[in-house]
Amino acid sequence: MNRFILIAALVLNAVCLFPVKTQFFTSDNEEFYDRGKQDGVSINQRNVMTLSPQLVKIGGIKKDYVWKITAAPNGDVYAATGHAGVIYKLQGKNFAEHAVLDSLEVSAIAVDSSGTVYAAGIPKAVLYKIVKGTVSVLRVMPDLYIWDMAVDEDDNVYVAAGGKEGKLYRYAKNGTWTELAVTKENHIVTLCYDKKRGVIYAGTEGKGLVLRITKTGDVSTVFSAVEEEVHAISVNDRGEIYVGTAGRDIDVKAGDSKTPQANGEKKSRPLKNSLYKIDTRGVSDRLFTFNDTVMLSIIDDNAGGVYVGSGDKGELYRVAEDGIISLVAKIDERQILSFAKSKDGILAATGNAGAVYRLDVAYRTSGSFVSETLDAGSLTRWGSVRMKAKVPAGGNILVETRSGNVNSADATWSSYTPVVSNRIMSSEGRYLQYRLTLSNKNVSTSPEVESLSLSYIPMNAAPEITGVKCTTAYRQLSQKDAVKKPQLLQNTAMVTWNYYDANGDTLRYEVYYRREGEQKYKLLKGDLREPSCVFDAQKLSSGVYYFKVTATDAYDNDVREALTGEAISSPFVFDQTVPQVKDFVYVADKNGKRVSFRAVDDLSVIKSIRYAVDGGEWVYANPNDGQCDASAEELSFTAAADSDAIAIEVTDVEGNSAVYAFTVNGTSVDSQTTK
């Protein structure tokens, strides 16, 4: 009877000591296990982990690729390899060379009930016949390639070929050849003989078809995939068909059409392929779409599901009868090219490099999973492990962790330490890695991890405030770099700032000010929740001011852990006084009246000066030095000799403006000022 374990999360007393925001790495995230390293464990799409079936490598293969593997009716097992055209035969616990063909690759192999081996070589599409190790050429085919072969109960040999046309040939025991089917596809790349129903299923490259071909040569299309190549087919006893695709340049999306690119151009697209299931009614269902993977092989597992081999990641999947998919193993060889059923279990052949594995029904006695490096984002206190699992009698699940402050484990990291009383014992750090080790003495059952989470509490870091600035309504309208939101009303001003909190805490702000020459800051506004503060500018007298912004993360942290940050602005001029016109004089001579004056502002730079004579149009004038760029500017101009009214407008960079009117009569000057 299984015993259940549930490892609890943080204990209450521990939570009270830390900031209130406990965070979790959890298997509820569907990508939780994706980038970890599996060794002897399987993980299904619901993130349930168990021990894997035993996967044992069979020795003797010394080639780069095992393209096909097959088991003869008498139980003998043969492997077709490349790049040297060697056929291996299983002798005891290892493979040994059985025959060498005069071809670079052995692309297909089949064995009839008498033990006669049929093998295809490429290039040149040569079909060989091997009897007791003696090789002879049976036929040089008219096609460019032979991709697959199958044998029926009458020892008829079916040959899938391609190049210009996808063809299916039949070679009868009496030596006659029949061109059983000719398609408009480029290749027939895979065959699956349904012994129970006596029909052949063929997968094509071109439009990605699954064809049903009878022994009389009747051809019908069972299925058309979105992808361009059907590379693997398996049929179970119920007549359900599993189909794997291996298209390399077509994007797979629901509802995609196969419309070619304009002008015949092909665009580079993500590599995606699919696993389909066709039920006994002929209704198809896409079970899964895989990224950056091709489905190279499928086999019925005799338990209602199938095993699926992929490339170029060397991933072995199992799809259960209920449709749940598990990643059974990641093997060192990058391609799982072929499956076969033997008396000792299911065999899997690989490429890059060539090998054969035996997949047993029994579970491994132990296996492990090492996670990717988990990043907490900042220096962190590690909490507890919460795990829901089933552990059979005699089984065990060990959880260990290690931590560090660089993103990949090195000598500075701590060593793996077991979790003790649910607590993670690793030292504080930014990064964490965990290791699960499952074990069981009884190979008929396995421990099962249903869910897993690891809690952590980032150590509190003080908020950072930068870029404290102040702007007024006038500056907001007239300056390119002024903050534009919210739009300020006349006589209002705004302090803004940038903020950063490494923990992502909610921040509250206070804004202070002081006038130049003063020592103490005064509160302008508090309990602000946004990084801006709008206030009535008229409440501050003209002068030079400094603004200080403070931020606290107390809202998200225990009062004993809360931290603050602050920053002070550059000096900011609040100028609400108008510029003045001083030393206004004029001198009458034969050329007219020569007018001169000084424009002066106590705090700001003069922005513009203009004048009008006798109520005429305003005329902008540059100072005597050529431009307005100081708080005091001198300007001279000549008016007509009979003029007697001069108006001067002076504006500073803060938008303060005044008009000074002068009446000149003889040697006297009368004046008045208008804001």
Q: Which secondary-structure class do the elements indicate?
A: mainly beta
User: Roughly how much helix do the residues carry, as a percent range?
Assistant: under 10%
Beta-strand portion reads over 45%
Mean pLDDT metric: 90
Number of H- or I-type helical stretches: 2
What's the shape?
elongated
The largest pleated sheet is described as: 15 strands, antiparallel
Report the strand count: 55
Terminal CA distance reads 94 Å
The low-confidence parts are 1-20, 250-266
Radius of gyration: 42 Å
Question: Care to describe what's here?
Answer:
A hairpin with a 2-residue loop joins strand 54 (657-665) and strand 55 (668-674). The protein contains two helices and 55 strands. The chain has a 15-stranded antiparallel beta sheet that branches. Strands 42, 43, 45, 46 and 47 form a five-stranded antiparallel beta sheet that branches. It is an all-beta fold and 675 residues long.
Concise description?
The protein is mainly beta and 675 residues long. It contains two helices and 55 strands.
Keywords:
single chain, 675 residues, mainly beta, 15-stranded antiparallel beta sheet, 5-stranded antiparallel beta sheet, 2 helices, disordered N terminus
